[in-house]
Amino acid sequence: MWFKNLKVYRFTSKFAFDEEQLQAMLESMPFRPCSSQDIESKGWISPIPKAENLYHKANQDFLFSLKREQKLLPASVINSELIQKVGEVETETGSPMPKKAQKDLKEEITQRLLPRAFSKFGVTNAFVSIDQQIVVVDASSDNNAEAVLSCLRKCIGSLPVVPFSKTQQQEVLTDWLIKDVPAGFEILNEAEFQSTAEDGGTIRCKNQDLDAQEVLNHVQAGKMVHKLAISFQEKLTCIIAEDLSIKRLKFTDIVLEQNEDIEKENVALKIDADFMLFSSEVKAFIAELDTVFSLSEGDAI
Predict the structure, then answer these.
(1) What does the CA dihedral 276, 281, 285, 291 come to, rounded to 10 degrees?
(2) Listed range (143-157, 216-230, 271-285) with the worst mean pLDDT
(3) Contact 157, 22 (CB under 8 A)
(4) Over 90: is that where the pLDDT of 1 sits?
(5) pTM (2 decimals)?
């Protein structure tokens, strides 16, 4: 239940769930495995195994889990058979096969092979904080995050959100490196720099002292920080990107040890406690980012 990535969105107007209807709304899109002719299926599952509710609430935070099944049918397999079939038809008829006929044949081949395709399953977790008016998705890509938002929006009717930061923050991150980092934050030993020139390059540093002159030379040459490894209040470490998305999020023992006394066998209690702890720490982190990047002063809303 501990998120590894954070894609953060904030509401553009005051939002609250209709809790009396929320379960019924989510039940309009429960997860169902792909049928023999489906290439993809997605829907809600309970965040707590074997629980009935398709969401979990702790204080004013709502946890959701979107499960996804995708059939793995490589394009190379389809195209190989398509080329063979097209060749056979053209040999028989003595004339090129029309493009529309090839398209129809490709669809026929796809539908025939789907029942034999392997399935890939994945679950994307997200939570909605009513008190902080944000949505946080455990996704490393915009597409995966938007899939959760889209499904939630489809079920409840409206989800008026925008990205946490509507502008790129590479200038601020670069200032962190060459000037002062805000209180509570510490720069670690990994970063990615990109040139401001249209055809400029990218430099990645790992296990490198970022105060070293050889690193600062890249900044002086016109490159800016696009990703930066940081720690926050000795409670977590992560990679922060210029759009303020977070990857490789890890909590330190200072946080993790707080729930060590809860037996893992009590799954529901453990998930509930971990979610309460995790969400509170994430919200504190996001609130601090909001402050140090001055987002509430007009950037995001």
Answers:
(1) 70
(2) 216-230
(3) no
(4) no
(5) 0.86
Task: List Cα–Cα distances, 63 to 80, 138, 268, in angstroms.
Answer: 44, 11, 13
DSSP one-letter string for 12-61: SS-----HHHHHHHHTTSB-----TT-SEEEEEE-SSTT-S-SSEEETTE
* pLDDT per residue as tens digits for the range 74-88: 888 888 888 988 888
CB 68 within 8 A of CB 147: yes
Q: Which of 4, 63, 7 is nearest to 275 (CA)?
A: 63
CA 101/CA 200 separation, integer angstroms: 45
Q: Say whether 134 sits in a helix, a strand or coil.
A: strand
Listing DSSP states for 161-179 in one string gives: EEES-SS--HHHHHHHHHS
Among the residue ranges 56-60, 76-80, 228-232, the one predicted with the least confidence is 76-80
And the tokens for 60? 């004013």
DSSP bridge pairs for 232? 185, 236
Q: Please choose, from the candidates 7, 11, 271, 241, the residue with its C-alpha nearest in 3D space to the C-alpha of residue 138.
A: 7
For the chain, what percentages of helix, strand and coil (3-state, to nearest 5) are there?
Answer: 40, 30, 35
Contacts of 12 (CB under 8 A, 6+ apart): 160, 161, 162, 301
**What does the pLDDT read at residue 297?**
58
Find out whether 172 and 47 touch, Cβ atoms under 8 Å. no
- In sequence order, the β-bridge partners of residue 165 are none
Q: How far apart are CA 184 and CA 186, in angstroms?
A: 7
Where does the chain show beta strands of DSSP type E?
7-11, 40-45, 56-58, 61-72, 118-129, 134-137, 161-163, 185-195, 202-206, 223-232, 236-241, 246-251
Rounded (10°) angle between helices 170-178 and 213-220: 140
- Which one, of 113, 91, 111, 90, lies nearest residue 101 by Cα? 90
